[in-house]
Amino acid sequence: MGLENFLDLGKVPDGERILEQLQIVEVANAEEISLAPIPLIEHFRQGLGRFKGGYARGLGIGGLSNRYMEQELIKTCEEQATKHADDLEKRISNLGDTIKMQADLINQLHNLVEDLQNQANEYKNARSENENVSGIKLSESQLQQISAFVMQRSK
């Protein structure tokens, strides 16, 4: 069925008759229509009353192309923003782990400093007791030599 049977030049067809004839042509040429480029199919559907949103607003092919490009740009930007947000979340998680490790290390160092201060206080107390008991006052260098000797012997 071709277009010569589609229009009858002597009469002005009503919309219902045109729609019936278009549906007949669609059924007869379904294979060719399915192989046609997308814009042709969309124009054929417009004739059958299945409007795309853009056609109903009178955008036309150029407007639809621009709209499609804008939508693709928005999708791309959204995907990039989502990926960036995911990367930032991973980075924040890594930084949180690093901060926790550093806090643990700081606590260990504080405990070590407290232990060293306690040992220093014990050493000072022991030295003052030694001076009180023996009545001998040792110089700092002598005390260091004695403590080094004791350390070597304890190993």
From TrEMBL:
SUPFAM superfamilies: Tubulin chaperone cofactor A. InterPro entries: TBCA_sf. Keywords: Coiled coil. One of its GO terms (biological process) is tubulin complex assembly. One of its GO terms (molecular function) is beta-tubulin binding. The keyword Coiled coil applies. Residues 99-133 form a coiled coil. This is Uncharacterized protein. It comes from Rubroshorea leprosula.
